[in-house]
């Protein structure tokens, strides 16, 4: 039967699980079949015997199903390098290039001639650039936090980018080029699993 750990007392080595049937089952440390300490909320599989749970195994954490809302707005979970590059970084780069190209096409050409009559700036491209930057701010943070999670780091690791040059290079290497931790970590299941 499957269930969830309700609580565990490390002094008495006893705990409780709520089964999928809605009933409560007690267990002891001797019934626990995982190297980690039992923790509230852990998803488990166990053998039920009356009101007792035996042979309690922790289930691997499952990654939530992919949705764009989760990917771009949530700070929970992990994303792989492939998702980081192909679903976030590449589309954002293409969008910035498209806005830049639009800026070139709609630029005031009088400034380029050198008579000083025009500004050389495209107001349409400028507004679009500000809009894209503002709209991509939170999704950028969310995706990068999930990449930090895949590396088994807190989202606060992003603050390393405040260190001039070295911080940004380190962050680029960590998020863009180094594989995440294999298997489950404290932030969820392996996105490659």
TrEMBL record:
GO cellular component: plasma membrane
Stated name of the protein: Uncharacterized membrane protein YhaH (DUF805 family)
Keywords of the record: Membrane, Transmembrane, Transmembrane helix
Transmembrane regions listed in the UniProt entry: 84-104, 124-143, 155-173
Keyword Membrane: yes
Origin species: Nitrospirillum amazonense
Superkingdom, natural source: Bacteria
Record keyword Transmembrane helix present: yes
């Amino acid at each position: 039967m499957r269930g969830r750990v309700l609580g565990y007392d490390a002094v008495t080595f006893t705990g409780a699980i709520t089964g999928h049937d809605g009933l409560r089952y007690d267990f002891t440390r001797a019934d626990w079949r995982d190297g980690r300490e039992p923790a509230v909320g852990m998803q488990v599989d166990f053998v039920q015997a009356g009101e007792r749970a035996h042979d309690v195994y922790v289930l691997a954490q499952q990654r939530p199903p992919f949705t764009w809302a989760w990917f771009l707005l949530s700070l929970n979970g992990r994303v792989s390098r492939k998702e980081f590059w192909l679903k976030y970084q590449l589309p954002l780069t293409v969008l910035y290039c498209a806005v830049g190209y639009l800026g070139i096409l709609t630029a005031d050409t009088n400034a380029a001639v050198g008579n000083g009559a025009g500004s050389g700036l495209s107001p349409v491209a400028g507004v679009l650039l500000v809009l894209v930057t503002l709209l991509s701010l939170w999704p950028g943070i969310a995706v990068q936090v999930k990449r930090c999670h895949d590396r088994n780091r807190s989202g606060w690791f992003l603050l390393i980018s405040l260190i001039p040059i070295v911080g940004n290079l380190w962050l680029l290497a960590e998020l863009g080029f180094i594989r995440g931790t294999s298997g489950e970590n404290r932030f969820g299941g392996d996105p490659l699993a």
